[in-house]
Design a protein that fits this description.
The protein has 179 residues and is mostly beta strands. The protein has strands spanning 7-13, 19-26, 38-39, 45-50, 58-66, 69-78, 81-86, 93-97, 104-109, 117-131, 136-143, 148-154, 163-169. A hairpin with an 8-residue loop joins strand 12 and strand 13 (163-169).
């Protein structure tokens, strides 16, 4: 994985064991960036980051996986990104960037989106995130140095619209989201 010619190969494997190659991309995917490859539930897209060997910000990339080609585009450059994953319908990808000492932001993007949208701001910590449905998340975090709080937000919503669900938790709080 540290070789100059390292790469990743993509295959679609059916339930009956038939493997179809989709393509290969060069890059250091094991030790290269803060976000390892995260496949969308439908298998048509992936998000990942590539680190800068000079110590600069990671390059965040969106990969489109089709039977005849791999499309690979940059959607952001950020230091220390954390990938929270794809929506159940595979159309929204969420990640956060919280610099040491904050404040940071949580972002949403997806296939065909021109630029990422910040849906939560002033984050000092974002610890856990779960999808409620295709466009709504619940997350445990701290904003502006407040106590640990469980929040709810629409990924396309304005950061000021973040809804507080439970205030005054600890960093050991755990939660699940059920329909």
């Amino acid at each position: 994985p540290l070789a100059a010619d390292s790469s990743v190969a993509f295959y679609r494997v059916t339930g009956d064991g038939v493997a179809t190659p989709y393509g290969t991309l060069p890059g250091n995917f094991v030790f290269g960036g803060g976000i390892q490859i995260q496949l969308a539930p439908d298998g048509a897209h992936a998000a990942y980051s590539v680190g800068d060997s000079g110590g600069g910000p990671d390059t965040l990339r969106m990969l489109t996986i089709a039977s005849d080609a791999l499309g690979n585009g940059v959607f952001d450059n950020q230091a220390g990104p954390v990938g929270w994953g794809w929506s159940p319908a595979s159309d929204v990808y969420v990640y956060s960037v919280v610099p040491a000492g904050g404040p940071g932001k949580a972002y949403a993007t997806g296939p065909g989106v021109e630029s990422p949208h910040a849906f939560a701001e002033d984050l000092t910590v974002l610890k856990n995130l779960r999808w409620v449905n295709g466009n709504t998340v619940v997350f445990l975090g701290q904003t502006s140095g407040s106590p640990w709080t469980l929040y709810r937000q629409i990924t396309g919503g304005e950061p000021s619209a973040v809804q507080t669900l439970v205030l005054g938790l600890t960093d050991q709080a755990t939660f699940d989201v059920r329909p």
